[in-house]
Specification:
CATH superfamily: FAD/NAD(P)-binding domain
Low-confidence stretches: 1-8
Number of domains: 1
Strand content: 25-35%
Largest sheet: 3 strands, antiparallel
Structural class: alpha/beta
Amino acid sequence: MQASVVAACNWDNAFDVVVVGGGSAGIGVTASLLKRRPTLRVAIIEPSDKHYYQPAWTLVGAGAYDIAETVKSMADIIPRNAGWIQIAVSGFDPEHNSRNCLMRR
């Protein structure tokens, strides 16, 4: 699979907030924003279709937690009313309020 860089990742102001990363922090920030302002248009940029709950991995190593319980479908984890852009971010351009994305072909 070849990856190419796409400049700006501009979605024509479709979102008020774009969160980069669908890990625990990105999911938590998105859920918090939508709880405070349900009308916000929020998207999460995350290329993976799986969410790994890494804080539990220490417990897995100790034998106190089942590793299968640390993996969930990203579609099931993303907060309701948030968009999911399944793409990777390769960089940011703060001067132009944009980011660069990797598109898979």
